[in-house]
């Protein structure tokens, strides 16, 4: 049952091997391309199978150590500090080593949170409609809407709203007065003052004439979010090629994954975020694991280190999500929760671990690698875990 | 409310029944508690999953077609 144009005999030969689906497909396409006969096909399939079985990890192979080395070595070639630009237009994204450290440390919030927001079909193809979503996401504060001036003589804050901006940011409302009214209401409920609104002019002042209160009001006014999501400071809209045509994709500076998924027009099946904790909260551990792998792989690729095998990154992500939550590698996470005192002491803050272990009377079973290296015994990996015994009978 | 299971990043989760679970545990010679865990509050869990259940997760694997893993539901 293959999509490739090969004879039934060849198919039987290839299907007979222990290869995984993906490799079988590759074998098929090579056979099809070269037009080889059944005998040759059999030999090819057997050779590929032998090679595949050879490259599988042996029992007792120290996969963790190999992963650590395989990520660590390319890590030394990474840039210590890169800001600016990450393939995505005009958006600052932390990259290189700082980003990698951030990921394995499982920081609560990344240095530069961002989201990639995909849109539902009707929004994704129409620039106007895509902009509707942009204004639902990007936080709109008063400075973007008009000019604020303080009238000290009458103790008033005066806002002169810009009509064009209003119409642009509220694309579904056509009446600037109605929008200004909405803004005035938001101000009233947030600052607890009464406002006077006429056309696009809004003015209000403190209850008692006080210069300090007046300035305080202006400060607070600047913080109010009139539209959009508070955390998101900027949205960039980009046209991207897809398999079937073009679509608009939004990139955001700042992230609030949960809020964005609920917005109308947002495709909740493809939208992603670079904060693994937000993904975990909204989509669960498995999605967080996927994101961890994607993000670490992208970080390495961005630095031209794409020859690191994904399997290493998958192992790291597996360990980090093993307990059903996201744990960091390191003293406060995986390495700090090891059973062995000696292994923990060998990692960081040696004295504290030894002291605590002594106080609590901990016992070290000497099961792991580090402990055995410390006490000078063979480690239980590879040939170290195999015991040979001489037979008692002679024959 | 957004349907979490529709997201590309979320693989298929399903509760494993007793017999299947027994087969899996004997195959790998492990106890149920040796499995990786998943929190009861996890968004991707099926509604009928309870603490102590094991869920089967069928991932779209990067290295083969699909990878089947199991997680034990914990508090």
UniProtKB/TrEMBL annotation, chain B:
One of its GO terms (molecular function) is DNA-directed RNA polymerase activity. It catalyses: RNA(n) + a ribonucleoside 5'-triphosphate = RNA(n+1) + diphosphate. Its EC number is 2.7.7.6. The keyword Magnesium does not apply. Keywords: Cytoplasm, DNA-directed RNA polymerase, Nucleotidyltransferase, Transcription, Transferase. One of its GO terms (cellular component) is cytoplasm. GO terms for biological process: DNA-templated transcription. InterPro entries: Arch_Rpo5/euc_Rpb5, RNA_pol_subH/Rpb5_C, RPB5-like_sf. SUPFAM superfamilies: RPB5-like RNA polymerase subunit. It is found in: Cytoplasm. Residues 2-73 form the RNA polymerase subunit H/Rpb5 C-terminal domain. It is an enzyme of class 2 (transferase). NCBIfam families: PRK09570.1. Belongs to the archaeal Rpo5/eukaryotic RPB5 RNA polymerase subunit family. DNA-dependent RNA polymerase (RNAP) catalyzes the transcription of DNA into RNA using the four ribonucleoside triphosphates as substrates. Part of the RNA polymerase complex. This is DNA-directed RNA polymerase subunit Rpo5. It comes from Haloarcula quadrata. The lineage of its organism: Archaea, Methanobacteriati, Methanobacteriota, Stenosarchaea group, Halobacteria.
């Amino acid at each position: 049952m293959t999509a490739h144009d090969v004879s039934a005999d060849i198919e039987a030969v290839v299907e007979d091997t222990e290869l995984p689906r993906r490799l079988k497909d590759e074998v098929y396409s090579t056979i099809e391309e070269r037009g080889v006969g059944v005998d040759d096909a059999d030999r090819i399939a057997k050779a590929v199978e032998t090679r595949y079985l050879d490259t599988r990890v042996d029992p007792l192979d120290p996969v963790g150590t190999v992963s650590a080395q395989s990520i660590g070595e390319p890590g030394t070639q990474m840039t210590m500090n890169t800001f600016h630009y990450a393939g995505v237009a005009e958006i600052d994204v932390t990259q290189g080593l700082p980003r990698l450290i951030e990921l394995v440390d499982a920081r609560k919030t990344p240095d530069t949170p961002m989201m990639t927001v995909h849109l539902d079909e009707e929004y994704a193809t129409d620039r106007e409609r895509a902009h509707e979503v942009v204004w639902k996401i990007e936080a709109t504060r008063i400075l973007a809407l008009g000019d604020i001036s303080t009238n000290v003589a009458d103790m008033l804050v005066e806002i002169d709203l810009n009509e064009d901006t209003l119409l642009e940011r509220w694309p579904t409302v056509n009446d600037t007065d109605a929008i200004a009214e909405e803004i005035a209401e938001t101000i009233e409920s947030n600052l607890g003052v009464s406002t006077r609104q006429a056309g696009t002019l809004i003015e209000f002042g403190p209850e008692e004439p006080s210069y300090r209160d007046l300035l305080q009001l202006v400060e607070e006014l600047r913080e109010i979010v009139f539209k959009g999501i508070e955390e998101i400071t900027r949205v960039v809209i980009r046209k991207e090629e897809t398999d079937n045509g073009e679509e608009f994709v939004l990139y955001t500076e700042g992230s609030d994954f949960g809020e964005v998924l609920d917005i109308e027009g947002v495709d909740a099946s493809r939208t992603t975020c670079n904060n693994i904790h937000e993904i975990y909260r909204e989509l669960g551990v498995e999605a967080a694991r996927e994101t961890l792998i994607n993000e670490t792989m992208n970080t390495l690729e961005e630095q031209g280190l794409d020859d690191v095998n994904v399997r290493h990154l998958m192992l790291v992500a597996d360990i980090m999500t093993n307990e059903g939550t996201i744990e960091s590698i390191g003293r406060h996470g995986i390495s700090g929760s090891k059973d062995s005192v000696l292994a923990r002491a060998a990692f960081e803050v040696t004295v504290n671990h030894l002291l605590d272990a002594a106080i609590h009377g901990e016992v070290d079973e000497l099961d792991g690698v580090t402990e055995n290296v410390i006490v000078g015994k063979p480690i239980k990996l590879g040939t170290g875990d195999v015991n040979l015994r001489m037979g008692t009978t002679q024959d | 409310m957004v349907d979490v299971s529709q997201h590309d990043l979320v693989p298929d989760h399903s509760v494993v029944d007793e017999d299947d679970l027994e087969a899996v545990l004997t195959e790998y010679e492990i106890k149920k508690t040796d499995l990786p865990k998943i929190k009861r509050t996890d968004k991707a869990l099926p509604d009928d999953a309870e603490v102590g259940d094991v869920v089967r997760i069928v991932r779209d694997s990067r290295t083969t077609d699909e990878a089947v893993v199991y997680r034990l539901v914990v508090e």
